[in-house]
Amino acid sequence: MANSLFFFFSKILWALLSPGTLILLMALAGTALLFLHQTKVARLLLGASAVILVLITLLPIGGWLATPLEKRFPANPELPRTVDGIILLGGAIDPLTSYIWDQPEFGAAADRYFGFIEMAKRYPRAKLIFTGGADTLLDQEYKEADVALYFLESMGIRKSRLEIERDSRNTYENAINSKALMNPQPGENWLLVTSATHMPRAVGVFCQQNWPVIPYPVDHETTPGRSWQLSFDPVDSLDDLNSYAREWVGLLVYYITGKTSAFFPEAC
Fold first, then answer.
1. Contacts of 90 (CB under 8 A, 6+ apart)
2. Are 160 and 108 in contact (CB under 8 A)?
3. Within a 10 A sphere around the Cβ of 77, how many other Cβ atoms?
4. Per-residue pLDDT averaged across 79-92, rounded?
5. Is 229's pLDDT higher than 70?
6. Whose CA is closest to 148, among 192, 193, 93, 217?
């Protein structure tokens, strides 16, 4: 029950408090105040929302938020000779769209799957687990895990090697459900594959569950050395800001609620 309440309220609160929503609410409030002849406050709100949108459009604020997340753990890390298991976190496939079109429909994090497949082939004796159900409030009957099983098999991963965890709705549930299924033992080497921006929070959750993992980050979004490059793409810029701000807020909330070992976790 506690996990369900956390999932429900986290979705609702983020929908209301995300940067894009807050800017929209400011603009709507300003417009409403114009009709109520509260012109001074209306101009302040409308002007502020316009200035914020211009800054978000011109400045790579999303990239500034993403850079420390992606640099927390090195890309292509030195890996041990023996790996006992490999964990793939869901979040790259839209299960509802995949069901409608009857084929896997990937989002921006498709690199998670390809990194996992590469590691699975590199360590043919490692145990494999995919973890991820539905991370939306609605359409809980459509699970990413079901599409993942089909896709991974089509890419040559034997079903006999693969454990599928289909009930988790967030990173915290990924860890606790996967641990219950795989029963990792002290001294084993487990790789964790997820997006680089999401890796700090994921590592923190697994560490808090006393499951040391080796981070294998993929799906990098930033370009080192170009953090000050200006752009003029309001849609992508706002989307990036929403995405990376969400990760920082997630780190804070997970730390406050005891789901991670630190606010900005390191490998355990």
1. 130, 131, 132, 133, 135, 144, 145, 148, 168, 174
2. no
3. 12
4. 97
5. no
6. 93
Q: How far apart are the first and last CA of the chain?
A: 29
Delineate the domains of the chain, giving CATH numbers in brackets: 2-69+232-255 (no CATH), 78-219 (3.40.50.620)
Mind giving me the DSSP string for 166-221? ----SHHHHHHHHHHHH---TT--EEEEEETTTHHHHHHHHHHTT---EEEEE---
- Dihedral of CA atoms 8, 10, 32, 55 in degrees, nearest 10, equals -150
Whether the pLDDT of residue 228 is over 80: the answer is no
Task: Return the pLDDT at 152.
Answer: 97
Q: Are strands 127-131 and 162-165 parallel, antiparallel or unpaired?
A: parallel
Instruction: Return mean pLDDT, the chain.
Output: 93
Give 39-52 as a 3 state SS string. Answer: HHHHHHHHHHHHHH
Q: Which amino acid is at 193?
A: V
What is the Cα gyration radius of the chain? 20
Tokens of 70: 């992606």
